[in-house]
Design brief:
OB fold (Dihydrolipoamide Acetyltransferase, E2P), Lambda Exonuclease, Chain A, single chain, about 30% helix, 7 helices, 3 domains, alpha+beta, globular
Amino acid sequence: MVDDLGMSRLGDLLGTGACKRKALDRDTALPGKAPGALLGTLRHWVLEAAIQGWWRAGGKAAPLPLVTWGNLETFDDRRMIASRLVDEAVAHLDGELGRMEPWRTPLSQAWEPIAWHNELTHLRSLVVARLPSKPTKPPGVSDAPPRLARGLKRPELALGSKSLHLRGTADFVEWPEDDIVRIIDFKSGGVIDTKGQLKEGYALQLQGYALALDEEARPKPKGFRLEVVSDREVFKVDGSKETLDVLRRTLKSQKLPWGQSAVAAVDYEAAGPSCMFCPQRPRCASYTEYAEGAWRSNRVGVGQRPLPLDIWGMVVSVEEGPTTLRVGIRSPEGERRQVVGLSLRHFPYRLCQVGEPIWIYGLQTLEGARSGQFVHPLNFHEEGTKPWTSAWTTRVFLAG
């Protein structure tokens, strides 16, 4: 259950031990998101805007009611609003990427033209289906922290509970007059398991938000209405008192230390599958030990890839090209790995040298399963032959 909660990006199970990889402490996290995750962010924005009836361009900009873009009554008007909303969201996302990560190409260039056209068409159809039937009043913009009390209506609400080791940001929270708090989480991509049910991690995420709010609010709400909104349907999540009490007891029984801020060196109590998408991997000694052990034992289930595409070890060869490197690495378990298309931007002062240690996180690979199961690849790359095969979140560390 704890691993599922960690994969939901809610579980804040950080310890306070110093990272053994001291050379990695100069940076705090992997940069940005891969193109598929960015598309998920885009869907998140347009779904939230459509359901709530207003669009916030980001930062402290005042929310803009969608009804000011046109009428909500006819299908053509709603389609016009959808088209404008999606276009503005794409432009805003590309602008943010250009400002924070200037080496990226625009999001629209990460897909083939036809695939990108189909994605935009799908996004517009989502907006048309989710638009409200009548105008809604957008929330005001304020620097003051919101009160966890009746009347609360807030997107991107930060919630946390020190006693339960939880911290996260709920996509939308509303506390109406009936004291039944509504918490919505927007999801893109696959949200159901092999049995056709909502994945447990997503349900736990919403229940964790409810627990965190319930722990901090005074007076407490009477109950919770929890929903996961995906591209195609809405899933109801059990928010009953009995279910939340079971989760509360489970979390309190875990011997997990309360963490420091993300900029401090961190160490997870126990690494596992929940490390897959953790941005703190480069700074976590527990993950390093877990990964090296898994590489040696090939402790991998059929059809699963529990480890990120990372590699570290001793440099055994370096070949320099016009804009990229080909680097051979001897990994800790003795295997030789190869990384091609490694951008020279990672080496602003000097190239990596044969005989020195190197750590590379967030790569890509074209290798699939071997012997019926996924194992740690022998060949990685950063820049692929086509934009959508490139790694978009690679980070390189040297010892000095």
